[in-house]
Amino acid sequence: MALTIGLTGGIASGKSTVTKMIRELGIPVIDADQIARDVVKMGEEAYNQIIQAFGQEILQEDGEIDRAKLGAIVFHNEQERKKLNAIVHPAVRRRMLAEKEAYVQKGAKTVVLDIPLLFESELTHLVDKTIVVYVDDDVQLERLMKRNGFSKEEALARIQAQMPLREKVKKADAVIDNNGTIEETKQQLWQIFKRWNAL
Ligand SMILES: CC(C)(COP(=O)(O)OP(=O)(O)OC[C@H]1O[C@@H](n2cnc3c(N)ncnc32)[C@H](O)[C@@H]1O)[C@@H](O)C(=O)NCCC(=O)NCCS
Ligand SMILES: Nc1ncnc2c1ncn2[C@@H]1O[C@H](COP(=O)(O)OP(=O)(O)OP(=O)(O)O)[C@@H](O)[C@H]1O
Predict the structure, then answer these.
(1) Distance CA 110, CA 91 (A)
(2) ipTM of this complex
(3) Measured between alpha carbons, how far is 33 from 95 in angstroms, rounded to an integer?
(4) 108 C-alpha to ligand 2 centroid (Å)
(5) Which CATH number fits domain 3-36+89-195: 3.40.50.300, 1.10.3720.10, 3.40.50.720, 3.30.1020.10?
(6) Ligand 1 pocket: which residues have CB below 6 Å?
(7) Are 172 and 12 in contact (CB under 8 A)?
(8) Calpha distance 67→114 (Å, rounded)
(9) Taking the model in full, what pTM does it have?
(10) Residue 66 · residue 59 · CB < 8 Å
(11) Which band of pLDDT confidence, cut at 50, 70 and 90, is reported for residue 52?
(12) By the 8 A CB rule, do 181 and 138 touch?
């Protein structure tokens, strides 16, 4: 039986940083954000549904979805966000499960699902264990503004579209504190994986 681990956290809390470390250990990671990008490309079913729901104005000149434009809509309006989620999430879930099954078939001992909205979308039944990558509020805001070039207002809108990180910490089987150095984060990850016999 393969061990399936759900990795989550807040926006810019360090999930991608941790998944890079996990891949370096030779453990496969399925990235929900990447799949969410793939399922809305031109020609996909969700692409057509998004145009029907949000109109042609959210397209770029090349016909692909303008993510910045769509983001500006959905991160400032919960109703619009729910509409987008209802289109994108079922497709993401299907593809994630298929990818996980393929890794299990190939004999993977551990598979990690990196799902930013693991708790918000109530997807914990898909995994055996959960890890939350945690940072303090001020560190999260600072890293998000720096990485994406967002204003404070834009960054806070995104942070507030998610369950507070502190609540996610309460729900997690294990927590990685990513306020410190990359090396300190790596040590915590190793300890958790050793404890769960995931390596
Ligand atoms: C709104 C979109 C177009 C903005 O795209 P953009 O390239 O700017 O951001 P990206 O997709 O890289 O997401 C960055 C982070 O935003 C957060 N986020 C994304 N979507 C949501 C959402 N619906 N609710 C809350 N947080 C979200 C996540 O922490 C994610 O890691 C895009 O995020 C999207 O299509 N979202 C809906 C699908 C979704 O929920 N994806 C997240 C995991 S399945
Ligand atoms: N321990 C750390 N020390 C300093 N900077 C860090 C640390 N961990 C992550 N960062 C930086 O913080 C930013 C956010 O990290 P990362 O991209 O891994 O977050 P994420 O949770 O994957 O974000 P998203 O939810 O948007 O996908 C990045 O610019 C990253 O380089």
Answers:
(1) 23
(2) 0.96
(3) 12
(4) 27
(5) 3.40.50.300
(6) 11, 32-33, 36, 67, 70-71, 74, 81, 84-85, 88, 92, 116-117, 158, 161-162
(7) no
(8) 20
(9) 0.96
(10) yes
(11) very high
(12) no
